[in-house]
Amino acid sequence: MRKFGLRQLAMLAPTQGLLILIIALPSLYVFWLSFTESSYGKAPTFIGWDNYAAIWNDRYFWRALVNTLIVINVIVYGELVLAFLLASVFAKGVPFRKTLLAIVLMPYAISEVVAVVIWKFLLDPNVGSFAKAMAAAGLPDINWATNPTHGLGLVSVVSIWLHLPFTFILIYAAMLAVPKELYESATIDGASGWQSFRFVTLPGVMPAIFVALIFRYILAFRLFSEVWLLTGGGPARTTEVLAIYLYKQSFTYASFGKGSATGWVMVMISGAIAAIYLRLLYSRGFKQDA
Amino acid sequence: MARIDRRQFVAGGLAGAAVAASAGRASAQSKTKLTIISHRVHQQTATEGPGGDVTKAWTDQNNATLEWVTLDLNAIHDRIFREAGLGSSDVAIDFVLNTRAVPEIMGLFEPIEPFMAKAPIEEFDDISQGMVKAFSSKGQRYGVPFRHAVNALHYNDTFLKERGFDRPPQVIDELLDYARKLTYTRPDGLKVHGWGFQADNYSDVVKLARAYGGDFITDDYKCVADSQGMVKALTLLKTMYAEGLIPKNITAMKQNDLITAMQTGQIAMTYFPFGRTVLFNDPKSSKFPGAFKLALPIVSKDMLAKGEVIASAEFWSMMIPKNSKNKELAWSLIRELSTKENTIREAVNGNGPVRGSAYADPRLIQMVPYAALEAKAIKAARVPMPAFNKAAEAKDVFIEEMQAAMLGLQEPEVSAKNMQKRIQPMLPA
């Protein structure tokens, strides 16, 4: 292994410096802000842990946390299952593979705002073509604007639709990388289809699954635009998620201290979730290669 | 055909970008850009309509261009205050709503006194001094009023006639019956809802409560949301929603969605500022041009007998952020937008004029058919909620409790009590 010296350090320094400048320092500033009372046109005043205590005692924070945890689990695991199924189909071979791949990847190229507005319009109960088609087919209405379960359900569907390509491409690439010889050996040894999947495919794609889970958990935890543009957190604040709660505290109520405290709580929770999966990734995925 | 290789493509791209950048610089050097953060309605009434572009002469004379950053009601103020909190900003003028003009934020803006001393606004006393006072703090004035938004009842007369009505509802007891009859499917398949309102705001519901004799927050900062009037208003909304007289997705409809719903005939009646009738009747964007008419907001029987009027008004003022790089030019534009002549032209474009003299102007009387009705409404107009530091939080509590009552998640009495209990501690002592 090459020696890590001053030269290497100097080459890394610009990147590290940039990371310190745009991530570490603002994060520390926000951390300090979380211990202050601060608003527009008002100098911050140190108030200790009061903001954290206020959040802890705020039922809207807990509701937003529960909504977030439910929705991100539906999104992340829904995406994983769909991506796995799609990748399996593609790995076995499909006609017009390139065209179908382009179709599957397309949502990732669409802006979140545009995508949400399109879905909102399609499911508008008064004029939406999806809503009208569902009514014509005798299907029940989706009252996404007034029923919190329907609202969060639609948020999950839109989010899965938007981000499925990310999980799919990771798993598909991993599936293609599993050596064909392993399947041939399994067949010679008399393994059934399920056994080939369980003992050849799954271990081969597991690291990719953990990587997808970590990234999607962290990104989904910041879920904002889907909820903000569809329901705005309503009706009656029942579909609020943590990022909306943070936004309201910071910019609608101009309570920067509480907003900052919420931000740090979010960092801690998503960090804890990521740590669990990183541990799993290390112990089951990469350990043998380390 | 000659083939372009990768190097040529990259070189061409860079050359193109350099030309575009230098052209942009040249253009920027020749004209000064002023950024304005406002609602779309401000840009519209200042630059479009029968009154023409009010800003044109000024931009020509000052060799300037205007960049209007227009956003929805809540987003405007989030953006304004965030920009104003920065070290410096390109934003020259902010349009701020009266309920957001709380003492806490005044420090982010320039007082207008020094500008007035150097270059006063034409006949400033003609501008509503009540509105000027609302944008004052500690003896300093911070805003120049631009627009008032006094609400009227807008109704689609074609629908009313189709359903056998020869006049709009006048008293609150009629509203439910009107909404029921006006909720129907037309022969062309268009589903019409009898009533629509801004369910992400408090103003329309406060008007209903006032028509029932109730209120929300008094001018001396007493929360009276648990009054019978408010309970009745919430009960009315609950009934309307349960019977499908209001669009199902009303809680997710923003102001612009409501405007579209009116223009496309999905809603028969709603409250909006007077000037919106121009938009509702615009042949370019409305399916029913000429069908929309105006009436004074609905009142109680007693009030109608006494000739009393309920009108809620909110108003917008122009403010110069302290961190603005171009304050003198910003003031110059504010002066231009506030002249007597331009106030009339903006009113003709659909603005609510803030000068008392505007309503006596023969051009306004001739070109704005609702001028007399609006003048009557503005005399009686009150803000739906006075400004205070926690106004944004109080608004959210109101919306939350109102929506919960309307959707049947809790009884209207419970919602009204919750509003009272939660909002009273937020008010100034």
Largest sheet, strands/sense/barrel of chain A: 2 strands, antiparallel
Calculate the terminal CA-CA distance of chain A, rounded to whole Å.
14 Å
Helical fraction of chain A equals: over 70%
**Residues in β-strands, percent of chain A:** under 5%
Mean pLDDT of chain B: 90
Radius of gyration of chain A: 23 Å
Reported for the largest beta sheet of chain B, the result is:
8 strands, mixed
The CATH architecture classification of chain A is: Orthogonal Bundle
Number of domains of chain A: 1
Tally of strands of chain A: 2
Distance between the termini of chain B: 80 Å
Structural commentary:
The complex is a heterodimer of chains A (290) and B (429). With 290 residues, chain A is mainly alpha-helical. Chain A has a single domain, classed as Orthogonal Bundle (MetI-like fold). Chain A is 73% helix and 3% strand. Chain A has twelve helices and two strands; from the N terminus they run H-E-E-H-H-H-H-H-H-H-H-H-H-H. Chain A has a two-stranded antiparallel ribbon. In chain A, a hairpin with a 2-residue loop joins strand 1 (36-39) and strand 2 (42-46). In chain A, helix 3 (59-92) packs parallel to helix 7, helix 9 (193-221) runs antiparallel to helix 12 and helix 11 packs antiparallel against helix 12 (256-286). The longest helix of chain A is centred in the first third of the chain and has 34 residues, at 59-92. Chain A starts with 5 loop residues before the first helix and ends with a helix. The model of chain A has no long low-confidence stretch (mean pLDDT 91). With 429 residues, chain B is of the alpha/beta class. Chain B folds into two domains: 7-149 and 314-382, 3-Layer(aba) Sandwich (D-Maltodextrin-Binding Protein, domain 2), CATH 3.40.190.10; 150-312 and 387-426, D-Maltodextrin-Binding Protein, domain 2. Chain B is built from 20 helices and twelve strands. In chain B, strands 1, 2, 3, 6, 9, 10, 11 and 12 form an eight-stranded mixed β-sheet that branches. A two-stranded antiparallel sheet of chain B has the order 4-5. In chain B, strands 7-8 form a two-stranded antiparallel sheet. In chain B, a hairpin with a 2-residue loop joins strand 4 and strand 5. In chain B, helix 10 (203-211) crosses helix 11 (228-242), helix 11 (228-242) packs across helix 20 (412-423) and helix 19 packs antiparallel against helix 20 (412-423). The model of chain B has no long low-confidence stretch (mean pLDDT 90). Chain A: Keywords: Cell membrane, Membrane, Transmembrane, Transmembrane helix, Transport. Chain A: It comes from Alsobacter ponti. Chain A: Belongs to the binding-protein-dependent transport system permease family.
